[in-house]
Write a structure and sequence with these properties.
With about 325 residues, this protein is of the alpha/beta class. Helices cover about 40% and strands about 15% of the residues. Strands 1-9-8-7-6-4-5-3-2 form a nine-stranded mixed beta sheet, sandwiched between helices.
C-alpha cells in the first residue's frame, strides 16, 4: 500500500525564495553550457574538496573506514551510542561528484533523528568506473556491515538522488547475490531510471529549479558507456521489486525526479512491497540537505528518523 503524504501543504517563504533563486541563477548554468565529459566531471570534484574545509558539526564523531578501493566514515551524532543498528548511506551527486564531506551535516542530522550511527560511503564514480562499479562498491559496504556483526534487520540503506538509485540498486543486487534483505530502503529524491524519456516529458521538467532532465540524459549515456550486455542494475525501477524490503521515498512537488519517485511507489505497490511516498509541497531536489535555508528540511529528516526507528524497532526492544 502506498502512503502518499503531502507533507507540507503550505510552502514556507524561505523555501519559495530558495527555489526562485536557484531557478533564476543556477538552472541556466545547468543548461547547454558545455559538453558533459571527463574534464567537466573532474572539475566537479572540487565540490568535495571545498566541503572538506568546513568544520565538522559540533559534537559529531567521525571514524574513517577503508574498503578495497574506496573509503567510508562512521558519522555519529551527539548523544547517540552504538547498539548494533546502523544507517548505510550513499551520497548523491549524479555519480560524478560530492562525497563524505558534502553530505556530512545532513547525515549527522539523520543519525540524530534515527538515534543510531550512519556509515557514509565514498563509492567510486565517473570517470573511474561506470554505474555498475558504483553499485558494486555499495554492495561491498553492505556485505562488510553484515560480516562485522550487524544483523540485516538492523540496517537501513539510504541515499539521495544518485545515492537513492544506489540504495535501491544495492539492496536488489545484494539479494541477487544471496545476501539477506536490509530492514528498509530510503530514497531522498532518488534517480531510479537512467532512461530519462519519462522525465523529459514530465510536467516538472520545466519547473525544477535546478535539475535539467535533458542534461541528465546526457550524463546517463556516460554512465552506461561500455556496460554490456545491459545490466539490470541500470534501472532499479524495472527490476524485480519483490526482492526489496519496505521503503520510504521523499521528494519535492516541483522537482523532475518526482517522476521516478511516483513510478517506483506504484511499481512497489504492484510487487506487493510497502512503500511510503512523501511529496513535500513546493520543495526542491534533496531539500533535506538545505536545512540552513529551508525550514521544511528538519521535519522531513525527523520523518526519516521515525521511519528508521520503526523499521529497526525490534533491536531497540531487545536492548531494553
Amino acid at each position: 500500500m502506498i502512503d502518499t503524504l503531502d507533507a507540507a501543504r503550505v510552502t514556507s517563504r524561505r523555501a519559495r525564495r530558495t527555489a526562485e533563486f536557484m531557478h533564476r541563477r543556477l538552472r541556466p548554468r545547468m543548461t547547454g553550457n558545455g559538453e558533459i565529459n571527463e574534464r567537466a566531471v573532474r572539475r566537479l570534484a572540487t565540490l568535495e574538496r571545498l566541503a572538506a574545509l568546513a568544520p565538522v558539526p559540533r559534537g559529531v564523531r567521525l571514524r574513517r573506514v577503508q574498503f578495497d578501493g574506496f573509503r567510508g566514515e562512521w558519522v555519529t551524532a551527539p548523544g547517540v551510542s552504538a547498539d548494533g543498528r546502523a544507517v548505510l548511506y550513499f551520497h548523491g551527486g549524479g555519480f560524478v561528484c560530492c562525497g563524505l564531506a558534502t553530505h556530512r551535516r545532513m547525515i549527522a542530522q539523520i543519525s540524530a533523528a534515527a538515534s543510531m550511527p550512519a556509515l557514509s560511503i565514498a563509492y567510486r564514480q565517473l570517470p573511474e568506473v561506470p554505474v555498475t562499479g558504483s553499485v558494486a562498491d555499495c554492495v561491498t559496504a553492505y556485505r562488510q556491515l553484515l560480516a562485522h556483526g550487524h544483523a540485516p534487520e538492523d540496517v537501513v540503506i539510504a541515499g539521495d538522488s544518485a545515492g537513492g538509485f544506489l540504495a535501491f540498486a544495492a539492496a536488489l543486487r545484494a539479494v541477487e547475490q544471496g545476501l539477506p534483505k536490509p530492514a528498509a530502503v530510503i530514497g531522498l529524491s532518488p534517480w531510479l531510471d537512467l532512461d530519462c524519456n519519462a522525465k523529459i516529458a514530465h510536467a516538472n521538467a520545466s519547473l525544477d529549479p535546478y535539475i535539467v532532465a535533458k542534461e541528465m540524459a546526457k550524463l546517463a549515456e556516460l554512465l552506461v558507456e561500455g556496460v554490456t550486455p545491459p545490466d539490470p542494475a541500470l534501472s532499479p525501477l524495472t527490476s524485480d521489486l519483490s526482492m526489496l524490503p519496505p521503503a520510504l521515498i521523499q521528494c519535492g512537488s516541483i522537482e523532475v525526479l518526482r517522476c521516478d519517485a511516483e513510478l517506483m511507489a506504484e511499481a512497489m505497490e504492484r510487487a506487493g512491497v510497502p512503500c511510503r511516498l512523501q511529496i513535500w509541497e513546493g520543495q526542491i531536489h534533496v531539500f533535506q540537505a538545505f536545512s540552513a535555508l529551508i525550514p521544511e528540511a528538519r521535519p522531513a529528516i525527523a520523518q526519516i528518523g521515525a521511519f528508521i526507528q520503526e523499521m529497526t524497532s525490534s533491536k531497540a526492544d531487545r536492548a531494553a
